[in-house]
Amino acid sequence: MTLNWFKNEDNVSYSNIDDFADNFAKESGIHNLREKIEEFKKNPIKEGKIIRGNKRTSIKLLIPNDYFEDDILMGDSVWVYVGEHYPAYCIYWN
User: Fold this and answer.
1) 3-state secondary structure string, the chain?
2) Are the CB atoms for 65 and 46 separated by under 8 Å?
3) pLDDT of the chain, 94 residues: tens digit per residue
4) Which sequence spans correspond to the domains of the chain?
5) Is the pTM of this model over 0.90?
6) Around Cβ 4, how many Cβ atoms within 10 Å?
7) Residue 4 in contact with residue 68, Cβ under 8 Å?
8) Which of 19, 94, 87 is nearest to 59 (CA)?
């Protein structure tokens, strides 16, 4: 996981929390995903937080500007990192 990977627009999907949370929760088997994302937004951890689902899935919630100590586009938002072979989801609220 590198800063340059997050800066590459081909690796990023910008998603509204209303569209993202329920759909991704079903796909990943992570119950209460929206609540977990919102809790992380209120109380972020610099190194991020790993959340495990019941479908052999794990994700990492992070705020890139804190994690990498550098600024990127929308890097102050909560991002969902699934792995370098999948897009990272930059989550935004209306």
Assistant:
1) CCHHHHHCHHHEEEEEHHHHHHHHHHHHCCCCHHHHHHHHHHCCCCCCEEEECCCCCEEEEECHHHHCCCCCCCCCCCEEECCCCCCEEEEECC
2) no
3) 899 999 999 999 999 999 999 999 998 999 999 999 999 999 999 999 999 988 788 999 999 999 998 999 999 999 999 998 999 999 999 8
4) 3-92
5) yes
6) 9
7) no
8) 87
